[in-house]
């Protein structure tokens, strides 16, 4: 298992995060830091607060209380565009890909490259950069000009991760990255996720699959009913302990 960067300034720090919706507390007193080149898994039952935390980190929600820091600097993610500008990218479960567009246009969606005095789309450069990235990440697709709707679930997931990788300078959040995939496609996507570590990105993954969590993560953070139950180094724990932390039984 990968050695994490002890002593490095964390890419992301969450300190005493609280999130309330009306009178309901969705997340309470949550603290976590993630370093470059580290994969941290966030686990918990449905309703534990995982999705709320992802939305806080990605700028969709602003926390009721608490502090967010990126590379040691306190930040306010007033919306999702601010999080992106600070180098945070999210791969949501629905992937947010445009089916009728080719792979390379999806990679540059909303950030298309242009050329010349008339700002024409620079399709050649976008194709070239996309092909290079999918080759580096070993995302097996027919070509960067293939249409998204013609790709399998695993290939689409690979493209969504590649897009996040292209734009993320600091952190990638992955929400159930292999939930709808079979065994072979899951293995390919996991290989892509592992390659993010080599690119020295920080990765936060939400997964219901503890097998996957133990394969991919350096640390595991457990949530239950909006409360942080604990953080464990993956190598120093086991599934039984994590399950009992998730359920409160044991």
Characterize the structure shown.
The structure is a single chain. 32% of the residues lie in helices and 26% in strands. The protein has a domain at 12-100 and 168-247: P-loop containing nucleotide triphosphate hydrolases (Rossmann fold), CATH 3.40.50. It contains 8 helices and 12 strands. Residues 1-6 have low confidence and may be disordered. The protein is globular. The protein starts with 11 loop residues before the first strand and ends with a helix. By secondary structure, the protein is α/β, with parallel strands linked by helices. The longest helix has 16 residues, at 183-198. The strands form 3 sheets. Strands 6-9-10-3-11-12 form a 6-stranded mixed beta sheet, with helices on both faces.
Characteristic key phrases:
single chain; 250 residues; alpha/beta; six-stranded mixed β-sheet; four-stranded antiparallel β-sheet; 8 helices; globular; disordered N terminus
Mind telling me the C-alpha Rg?
A: 18 Å
- CATH topology of one domain: the name is Rossmann fold
Overall average residue pLDDT: 90
Report the uncertain regions: 1-6
Q: So what's the CATH class of one domain?
A: Alpha Beta
- Sketch the topology as an H/E string, one letter per element: EEEHEEHEHEEHHEHEHEEH
Q: How many helix segments?
A: 8
Q: What is the CATH superfamily classification of one domain? A: P-loop containing nucleotide triphosphate hydrolases
Portion in strands: 25-35%
Sheet bearing the most strands, described?
Answer: 6 strands, mixed
Strand order of the largest sheet: 6-9-10-3-11-12
Structural class label: alpha/beta
Architecture of one domain in CATH? 3-Layer(aba) Sandwich
Tell me the overall shape: globular
Q: Percentage of helical residues?
A: 25-40%
The tally of strands reads 12
**Separation, N- and C-terminal Cα atoms:** 27 Å
């Amino acid at each position: 298992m990968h050695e994490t960067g002890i002593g490095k300034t964390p890419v992301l720090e969450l300190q005493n995060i609280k999130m309330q919706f009306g009178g309901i507390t969705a997340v309470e007193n949550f603290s976590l830091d993630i370093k470059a080149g580290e994969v941290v898994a966030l686990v918990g039952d449905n309703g534990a607060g995982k999705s709320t935390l992802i939305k806080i980190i990605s700028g969709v929600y602003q926390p009721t209380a608490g502090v967010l820091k990126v590379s040691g600097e306190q930040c306010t993610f007033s919306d999702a565009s601010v999080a992106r500008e600070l180098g945070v990218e999210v791969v949501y479960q629905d992937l947010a890909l445009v089916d009728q567009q080719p792979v390379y246009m999806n990679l540059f969606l909303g950030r298309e490259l242009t050329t010349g005095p008339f700002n024409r789309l620079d399709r050649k450069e976008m194709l070239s950069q996309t092909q290079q990235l999918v080759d580096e990440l070993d995302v097996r697709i027919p070509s960067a000009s293939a249409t998204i709707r013609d790709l399998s679930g695993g290939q689409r997931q690979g493209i969504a991760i590649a897009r996040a990788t292209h734009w993320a300078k600091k952190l990638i959040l992955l929400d159930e990255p292999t939930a709808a995939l079979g065994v072979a496609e899951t293995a390919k996507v996991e290989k892509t996720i592992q390659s993010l570590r080599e690119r020295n990105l920080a990765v936060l993954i939400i997964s219901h699959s503890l097998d996957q969590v133990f394969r991919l993560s350096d640390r595991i953070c457990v949530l239950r009913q909006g409360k942080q139950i604990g953080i464990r180094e993956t190598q120093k724990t086991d599934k039984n302990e994590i399950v009992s932390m998730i359920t409160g039984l044991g």
